[in-house]
Amino acid sequence: xxxxxxxxxxxxxxxxxxxxxxxxxxxxxxxxxxxxxxxxxxxxxxxxxxxxxxxxxxxxxxxxxxxxxxxxxxxxxxxxxxxxxxxxxxxxxxxxxxxxxxxxxxxxxxxxxxxxxxxxxxxxxxxxxxxxxxxxxxxxxxxxxxxxxxxxxxxxxxxxxxxxxxxxxxxxxxxxxxxxxx
Length: 182
Known about the structure:
Number of strands: 4
Number of domains: 1
CATH architecture: 3-Layer(aba) Sandwich
CATH superfamily: Alpha/Beta hydrolase fold, catalytic domain
Shape: globular
């Protein structure tokens, strides 16, 4: 949760007027538990979302952003849960079991932000994802690697540019709201 990419995403979301929550998955940092390969971590995100839902007025939209492994977890939760928009930051779809993300609901606003030099999301994998998620917004940050080294500002600009119209559409009911009263 103290990763510079995660911190940048939280700063941009807060600047856009959104309430934010960030946490470590089980077994990371000082958190308890052990890595669950992605399945157990879905429970971590669902618990964080339940806490957020209990702390905020029901009418507020919930946007989830995940970075790297967290983007895979966020995609799985968004595919099945009450998420109104999803930002996938550097999804590692070029490696291992993460090559295929789950099918996301039609109408769910999705941002995919990757670096042009992301070693875990190479161009061929990104093009495959474009085909699988044709309504998603894709932003490629030039000369950025998987960690956005030296490119955190452009990442934040891309996220902010997507957040403004997405939040406005959710607040006015122009975008589909999932599983919650509007």
